[in-house]
Fold:
Amino acid sequence: MPTQFYCATCDTFVGSVDCPNPNHAAPHKLISGPQVATDTIVEYRGRIVLILRAKPGESEEGKWALPGGYMNYRERCVDSAVREAREETGLDLASVALFGVYDDPRRDMHSDRNTIAIVYTGVGIGELHREDEDGEVSAVRGFTREEIEDRCFSPLHRGAEHPCLAVGGNLDPERFLTGEFALAFDHDRILRDYFASRHGL
Structure:
C-alpha cells in the first residue's frame, strides 16, 4: 500500500502522489517520510495475544503479528496502542507501559514505507474476540512462550469457544490447534527481547 498523505482541513487521507519525473518508466510514489506505528505485547490468561494478518495485498499476509497499526493524525502513541489492541482483539488494556522503539529501516521491506514501531506492553482485560471491520484480521489467539519460540501450535481445548482463540466465521478453528506458523515483520526479535527482559534470559 503506498504511503498516503493526510489533509488536516478535510480530516482525511488524500492518497499517494506520483513522482512528476517523466523519465521514470513506471509511476513512482513520493514518500512523505518515516511512518510511526504502535504495537503491543498483550498478556492475556498467561499467554501472548497475536493476530493473523489477513488483508489481501498487505505485507506479511498469513503471518501472526502483535496487535498494532499506524497512528492516527494528532493521536498520542499510547492511545494508538490501546485503540489498535481493542480494534484487533476486543481487549481493553491495563498496566500499559512503554517497552521499546524498533527503527531498523529494513524491518518491513514489503512496501515503500519506512516504519518505526513504538512497542508497549499491557494486560488484556475482557473477552478475546475478533474484530474485522477492515478485513485485516482473520483470527486472534493466545500463545505460550514455548509456542512462539518453537513456531508450533500446542493443542488448546477443542472448540471455537476457547477463551484464547477467536476466528472468522469461515475459518476452521482446528487449523489453529496444531501445526507450524510464522511471525510477521521483526516481531520475533521483539518477543525475544520481551522474554529476555521478563525472565532474565
Q: What stands out?
A: The first strand starts at residue 5 and ends at 7.
